[in-house]
Amino acid sequence: MRIDIITLFPEMCESVLSESIIGRARNSGKVEIVCHQLRDFAFDKHRRVDDAPYGGGMGMLMMAEPIALCFESICEELGQKPHFIYMSPKGEVVTQQKVKAMAETFDNICILCGHYEGVDPRVLDMYIDEELSIGDYVLTGGELPALVLADSLSRMLPGVLSSDECFELESHFSGLLEYPQYTRPEVWREEKVPEVLMSGHHANIEKWRREQAIKVTLERRPDILKDAVLSKKETAFLRELQENSSVE
C-alpha cells in the first residue's frame, strides 16, 4: 500500500512515521508513505494556501487550487486516482472494522490534512471520496488524525506486525475489547497472576481470555457487544453477567 499525506507540516508527520514499527515497515518496503508540502503548490511568492472566506467571519479557509494541484500531481505520479480522504470532525468516525476494510480494498490512499476554518468545499466535492474523523472533538489541524489513520492502516498490512495474531486478538477487531494480560513477576505487591494463566492448559486459558474479554466489554463498551460473534456458551455467560449486574 502507498499512503500520500497532503499537509502543511510534513516534517511533523515524518518525525512520527519514521519511528518504531511503522518506520521499520517503511524502511523494509512493506508500506510506502509520502508526505507532500502543500505550500509547494501555492501560486504566489508568499506560498499562501489560505484566504478569508466570502461572507465574512473569523479565521481563514484553505483554498481549493493548491489542494487540487497537489492531488493532481499525486495522481499523475501514480498513474491513477488514489482513494482520497479528508480528515474532518464532520466525517464518519473511524473504527477497526473500517480500517480493516480499507486495508483490504485500496492499494493507494491519499489523506488531506485540514487547517484553519476548514477547506473550500468545491475541491472536496470535486475530488474527495470520503471524510473521516478519529473522534467527536476538534483539533488544531488534520495531521494528528492523518497520522492515526496512516498508523492504523499500516499495521494491518502483511508483514508489518510479526503475525496476524498481533491485531486479530486486539480490542475491537473481533467485536470485543481485549482481555487483561499479565507478565513477571508472578506476584506483584501481593497481587497474583490468575491461576489459570499459570496452568499451561491452553483450552482453559483460551476460555478464560474470551470470558474476560466479554466481561471487560460489558463493563466498558456494552454498545459494541451487539456486533460480537459469540458461541452459545459465551452467549449464556454474557446473559449471566448481565443478569447479575442488573440484580446488583
Work out the number of β strands.
9
Overall 3D geometry?
elongated
Mean pLDDT: 93
Low-confidence stretches: none
Percent of residues in helices: 40-55%
**Structural class computed from helices and strand pairing:** alpha/beta
Global Rg = 23 Å
Element order: H for helix, E for strand: EHHEEEHEHEHEHHEEHHH
Q: Give the biggest sheet.
A: 5 strands, parallel
Specify the number of helices. 10
- Calculate the terminal CA-CA distance, rounded to whole Å: 50 Å
Share of β-strand residues: 15-25%
Explain this structure:
With 248 residues, the chain is α/β, with parallel strands linked by helices. Helix content is 42%, strand content 17%. The strands form 3 sheets. Strands 2-1-6-5-7 form a 5-stranded parallel β-sheet, sandwiched between helices. Strands 3-4 form a two-stranded antiparallel ribbon. The chain has a two-stranded antiparallel ribbon with strand order 8-9. The radius of gyration is 23 Å and the shape is elongated.
Compact description:
42% of the residues lie in helices and 17% in strands.
Describe the protein's topology.
Blueprint: E1 2-7, H1 10-17, H2 20-27, E2 32-37, E3 50-51, E4 61-62, H3 64-78, E5 83-93, H4 96-105, E6 108-113, H5 121-127, E7 130-133, H6 143-154, H7 165-168, E8 187-188, E9 191-192, H8 195-198, H9 202-220, H10 232-247
Parallel strand pairs: 1-2, 1-6, 5-6, 5-7
Antiparallel strand pairs: 3-4, 8-9
